[in-house]
Amino acid sequence: MRHWLIKFSIILLLFSVAFGTQKYCKTCKGELTGQYLIHKGNNYHRSCYDKHIQIYCDHCNRKIEASYNTSKGKNYHKRCFQQHIQKRCNECGDLINGIYNVHKGKEYHESCYVNHILPKCDICYQPVEDKYIKDFWGNYYHHYHEDKIPSCDNCNRLISKQLTKGGFSVSGNRFVCNLCKPNVVKSKSQLNKNLVEVLNVFKKIGINELPEKIPVTLVDSKDDLIKMSGHRHGNIQGYTSYEESTLAGKIIDQDYHIYILSNLHEEIFNAVLAHELLHVYLFQNQIDLQSDFREGFCNLGSSLIYENYTSKLSKYRLKNMNENTDPDYGIGFRKMKSMLDKIGWKRLLKKLPRL
Ligand SMILES: [Zn+2]
Ligand SMILES: [Zn+2]
Ligand SMILES: [Zn+2]
Ligand SMILES: [Zn+2]
Ligand SMILES: [Zn+2]
Ligand SMILES: [Zn+2]
After folding, report:
1. Residues 55-64: pLDDT tens digits?
2. CA–CA distance, 241 with 148 (Å, rounded to integer)
3. CA dist., res. 352 & res. 283, Å (int)
4. 6-22, pLDDT tens digit by residue?
5. What are the counts of helices (DSSP H) followed by strands (DSSP E) for the chain?
6. Domains present along the chain, CATH in parentheses
7. CB 298 within 8 A of CB 324
8. Neighbours of 214 (CB within 10 A)
9. Sign of the C-alpha dihedral computed for residues 142, 144, 149 and 154 taken in this order
10. What is the rounded end-to-end Cα distance, in angstroms, of the chain?
11. 286 Rama class: left (phi>0) / alpha (psi -120 to 50) / beta
């Protein structure tokens, strides 16, 4: 907060010698001869001044004879004022004149405040005033950096040397930071391990009949994935294609294929995989839900995965799911989550076909 220090006025007491035109004492109206005093533009006999105008220091209570300071209606010797009344900067210890800043009850020179007290931007290292962003990871930065610097597809940090040790781009319009890089899923060879992990999580809640072998393909471009899915939803990370073969009205074969964005952090990859596997579960069981129940249910799989991790990244992704305002992925998810919390997995799975 910026404050003004009540400016100290220096009022000089001038001594003058009367000659030429006649002058009169402001107090007694008597004629001035010889030495007299001028104070604030008025003339006084020395004795009249002492009796009626003389001011005293509000700090030491002694007479003020020369220049003095006023502050909040009180008068002080210059020395008394500087030593006892005038504010000192809490940073450099010097006296404060003019504009100063108050921070947590302490006073600072404006420049001391800006250079030493104001938090610095973690990206450009300049002081952060007014509008700033504090991200989930505790980074502070100017809000305008957000428009210019791409953010990590996984952790949402702004990709910069300072925040993420840099990063890389995937297919030109997706970005992954170097903090997430060591944990991203990008090769087909590791997919089976992830599939087994997620299937095991589902077994624990009573979903046992998911196929053990489902083809999973990594897709670099989000646009490709969106096109593939025929979705209008821009935040898509995975998609499951489903085909069934029927003979005389009976399903004789079901075919699934899961597509997931490449370069997702392993925890996010597993969460997306869990979401898609619950779509498979719905196909398998011929359960056709309205979109908010459907996506909300599949997101229960993602939250189940995130809850199994203790990392800050999983906490961050869970937080996003809980704050998501999308009618299906956010509101639908919370609808299904509160149902799950009330009745548990077993009863929820039983109840699904009747939703
Ligand atoms: Zn007089
Ligand atoms: Zn004094
Ligand atoms: Zn200072
Ligand atoms: Zn900055
Ligand atoms: Zn990241
Ligand atoms: Zn879905």
Report:
1. 889 999 998 8
2. 36
3. 12
4. 444 444 455 566 566 77
5. 11, 17
6. 2-85 (2.10.110), 132-179 (no CATH), 186-354 (no CATH)
7. no
8. 18
9. positive
10. 56
11. left
Give the pair of three-digit tokens for residue 293: 């129940």
Q: Distance, CA 336 to ligand 6 centroid (Å)?
A: 14
Mean pLDDT, the chain, as a whole number?
88
d(Cα 107, Cα 316) in Å, to the nearest integer?
Answer: 38
Token reading at 315: 């906490």
Nearest ligand to residue 279 Cα = 6
Q: Are 269 and 188 in contact (CB under 8 A)?
A: no
User: Which ligand does the CA of 297 lie closest to?
Assistant: 6
Beta-strand pair 106-109/99-103: antiparallel
Both tokens of 23, joined, read 């002058």
Using the mean position of ligand 5's atoms as its centre, give its distance from the Cα of residue 146 in Å: 15
Check pLDDT > 60 for residue 319.
Answer: yes
Amino acid at 192: N
Whole-model pTM: value is: 0.73
Give me 319's structure tokens. Answer: 């937080």
d(CA 299, ligand 3 centre) in Å: 54
pLDDT of residue 320: 95
**CA of 268 relative to ligand 6 center, distance in Å:** 14
Contacts 24+ apart (CB under 8 A), 120-123: 121/145, 122/162, 122/163, 123/149, 123/158, 123/160, 123/162, 123/163
Which ligand has its closest atom nearest to the C-alpha of 139?
4
Least confident of 27-41, 87-101, 102-116, 174-188: 27-41
Q: What is the pLDDT of residue 262?
A: 95
Q: What residues are paired with 261 via a beta bridge?
A: 219
